[in-house]
Amino acid sequence: MNTWPELPAAQQPPWPDRAELDRALATLRTLPPLVFAGECDLLTERLAQASRGEAFVLTGGDCAETFEANTADSIRARLKTVLQMSVVLTYAASMPVVKMGRLAGQYFKPRSSGVEVRDGVELTSYLGDAVNSLTFDVDARRPDPQRLVQAYHASGSALNLVRAFTQGGYADLRQVHAWNQDFVRESVAGERYDALAREIDRALEFMKACGANPSEFERVEFYAAHEALSMDYERALTRIDSRTGKPYDVSGHFLWIGERTRQLDGAHIHFASTIHNPVGVKVGPSASPDEIVEIAERLNPERIPGRLSLITRMGASKVRDALPGIVQKVDASGIPVVWVCDPMHGNTREAASGHKTRVFDDVIAEVEGYFDVHRSLGTYPGGIHIELTGDDVTECIGGTGGVAEADLHERYETACDPRLNRQQSLELSFLVADMLIRR
Hints:
Structural class: alpha/beta
Number of helices: 12
Distance between the termini: 44 Å
Largest sheet: 8 strands, parallel, barrel
């Protein structure tokens, strides 16, 4: 898989030295897989359930991972937030939840401009820690191919820790109370979560008294997902599986193509069509139904359930107008897809302070519109895709936790886009659970 067609590839880093890049890619090609083909196939099966309305997908994590935040505490906090949300969704809606993290690979970021100007100084934009540094400095902003290798090792460390947490007892369903012994307990969502945890405890005690104590409660499946943005990185980590003879991108279980890179004649769609991982495509309000059907044909010509997810990011004000035509056209094509809602990217605005932010009510409004559209068309709302953190940041406005616009400066820590904090994430999960019950 070392030879690829010369197709246009949007949003690629402007590497200044081809020889440096070639050395980094040669190193990547020799390194072991971060994930395994069998894990990717199992995820496809799980996503197939969601395409039939038999499961719900929860994807959550950082907008842009950083090497600095690749610590045990940070990873555990993000994982705990997703696990708490999944418990709420599973218990309230009586439905399996497929858990994925924007984690162990989300080190690249597309940008609206390739350069950033401050006080008359023009430098390369921050393109993610796998390319350059957030620091506004000539040397820091120079794209460095060795960061690709660093991203691989950081991803491997994160995956090792996630596997230890999810398979070693930390994710045991009988520990749901232990996940809430901090600031969230004092919030409205935290109090509601505690009440739900007590119900789960009683249910588990009843099962134990009846002689049932399933080992499935001790561990969870958790999958790594990221945007397949850098073609150099993803191609270097594509391997032929010895068992099936098929190519897999072993940088992550699930890869998605972004709104800015889903050109039908581009390298990203072609790449996604060649790998056997489950893949996704972000779909914004400017997409035409015919275009999305053609993308679906390219990426899932064999009509494999679970192979393709369409991750819609319309914006609260546009979802009810823009989504129905796309859903109807794809549904009529007979191509099975998982319909996932990303209520974050279509609802970004700039606060008076200059901070990029999102309003919690807009996030909820888009999710409600997404559910209403699928309910009216008889299709399945298959999941949500959220940018979140496990920390008490002040990046998104609203929620019962009460982050005000004037509070944004207090803990605005994101490397790129604003994320829901843990209170807002937990509150969102309860609201989505209510929508699932009504669907």
